[in-house]
Specification:
Radius of gyration: 15 Å
Oligomer: single chain
CATH superfamily: Winged helix-like DNA-binding domain superfamily/Winged helix DNA-binding domain
Number of strands: 2
Strand content: 5-15%
Number of helices: 4
Distance between the termini: 41 Å
Order of helices and strands: HHHEEH
Largest sheet: 2 strands, antiparallel
Shape: elongated
Length: 80
């Protein structure tokens, strides 16, 4: 697994309340026995927000809602 996978897993495990940077760091440390630097985690979180995988709300991160096939087609071709 990559750092991005671990970060996504940590945020996903937090449920709808989301996770802070420190909670992500703690989750990875406890579940994967890896102590990752804050800047590494911040970079991963920012990258996943930019990719649309995660959403940032204040200091908390949540998993972005998945787009259905129909929603993707509407977004691509417009509302018909």
């Amino acid at each position: 697994m990559t750092v991005d996978d671990w970060v996504y897993e940590a945020v996903e495990s937090s449920g709808t309340k989301g996770a802070t940077l420190r909670e992500v760091q703690r989750y990875i440390d406890e579940k994967h026995f890896e102590e990752l630097a804050v800047d590494t985690l911040e970079s991963s979180l920012a990258g996943q927000v930019e990719q649309g995988k995660l959403v940032r709300e204040g200091s908390r991160y949540t998993v972005a809602h998945k787009t259905t096939k129909e929603d993707a087609l509407k977004k691509l071709f417009g509302d018909s």
